[in-house]
């Protein structure tokens, strides 16, 4: 086998371990198809067939690096619109977003803190009594403010 491969022009380089079978016709064909597909995708991406920056109003240089392009993504990303906000505005409500993780700015956190403290002081004995107790404590918390 080695003699036949040597006659076809395959040789080991001195001091280097090389698998002669890696240069088989099937492997070469596979790599050819892989590289053709990869280059075709690159041409499609760079020519704008897959990515249409002109339609979106995005200006970019084809020579720009990935880091630069990813930095520009945030600038061109549309603002998030939530369906709950749309419905609330449709019926004349004002929607405000407060910063997350600031309990002092979240009124519901202050309310639930009061309710949880009242339940913790005198916990219910069974699951059946926990729901009415929670409703009763929340009513008391609303009344006292």
UniProtKB/TrEMBL annotation:
Q: Basic and acidic residues compositional bias: what residue ranges? A: 136-145
Instruction: Give the region (Disordered) as residue ranges.
Output: 122-145
User: InterPro entries, from UniProt?
Assistant: RNaseH_sf
Q: Which GO terms describe its molecular function?
A: nucleic acid binding
Q: State the name under which the record lists this protein.
A: Tc1-like transposase DDE domain-containing protein
Instruction: Identify the taxonomic lineage of the organism of origin.
Output: Eukaryota, Sar, Stramenopiles, Oomycota, Peronosporomycetes
């Amino acid at each position: 086998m080695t003699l036949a491969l040597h006659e076809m022009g395959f040789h080991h380089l001195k001091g280097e371990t090389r698998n002669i079978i890696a240069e088989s016709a099937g492997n070469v064909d596979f790599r050819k198809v892989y590289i053709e597909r990869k280059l075709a995708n690159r041409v499609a991406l760079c020519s704008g067939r897959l990515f249409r920056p002109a339609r979106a109003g995005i200006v970019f240089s084809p020579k720009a690096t990935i880091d630069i392009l990813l930095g520009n993504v945030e600038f061109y990303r549309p603002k998030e619109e939530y369906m709950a906000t749309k419905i609330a505005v449709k019926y004349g409500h004002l929607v405000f977003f407060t910063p997350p993780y600031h309990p002092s700015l979240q009124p519901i956190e202050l309310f639930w803190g009061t309710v949880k403290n009242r339940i913790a002081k005198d916990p219910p004995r069974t699951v059946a009594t926990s729901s009415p107790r929670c409703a009763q404590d929340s009513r008391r918390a609303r009344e006292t403010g």
